[in-house]
Every structure is written in structure tokens, then in C-alpha cells.
Design a protein that fits this description.
By secondary structure, this protein is mainly beta. 0% of the residues lie in helices and 61% in strands. It contains no helices and 7 strands. β2 and β3 form a beta hairpin. The N and C termini lie far apart (40 Å).
Length: 110
């Protein structure tokens, strides 16, 4: 929506990209960064291997994935995932592990 129509929302990069069918690509060393409306980084997703579907704007794999906030205070990892870029969602299906650091650091005490 204006005035943010040209602003970067998601950046997808990889170490190697190979065609894998119509609108599909195999990406080695997937790295996804998402950004808020004000341009600040929201989250990072990394995976060693996945299939990226350009038409659906998804990246998925039955392999490992790691995601974290830029400050490292929230981290989640697991095996088997789907990243949906249109709504910036990450679904991890197996062996999910979550780490939350300093969760109470910004909580005001009565």
C-alpha cells in the first residue's frame, strides 16, 4: 500500500540456484530476511537446501531450518518447513526447538 509500495519487504538469497521445474528452483544455502514497514529487520530464516516456488512465493524442504530475530533474542529451529513470503510465515513440522533470551528484560514490574 502507498507510500510503501516500493519498499523492500523480503529478500531471498542463496548460494546456488538451479531450475527444478516450472517456476520452481532448488536453492542451496537459503537465506531469507524480512523487513517491517519502517525498513527495520524483522527476522532471518536459513536452510541448507530447499525448493522455492516463485508462483506461490514459498520455500520448503524436509530438511533443517533455523530462524531468529536480528537481535538473537528469539530463535527457533527444526526439520521440515515451509516459508510463505506473502504473509511472512514460517511453519516447522518436526523436532522444533525454541530459545527465548531475556524475555523479561523489557517487562515493566509493578
Amino acid at each position: 500500500e502507498p507510500p510503501h509500495q516500493t519498499q523492500l519487504r523480503t529478500l531471498v538469497t542463496g548460494g546456488e540456484v538451479v531450475p527444478a521445474g516450472a517456476n520452481r528452483y532448488r536453492i542451496k544455502n537459503l537465506h531469507v530476511e524480512t523487513f517491517s514497514e519502517n525498513g527495520s529487520a524483522e527476522a532471518v530464516v536459513d536452510a541448507p537446501d530447499c525448493i522455492y516456488d516463485d508462483a506461490a512465493r514459498t520455500a520448503s524442504s524436509d530438511g533443517p531450518v533455523k530462524s531468529q530475530t536480528p537481535d538473537g533474542r528469539f530463535r527457533v529451529e527444526g526439520t521440515g518447513f515451509c516459508v510463505t513470503l506473502t504473509n511472512k510465515s514460517l511453519t516447522i513440522s518436526n523436532n522444533v526447538s525454541t530459545v527465548i533470551r531475556d524475555a523479561g528484560a523489557n517487562v515493566k514490574k509493578p
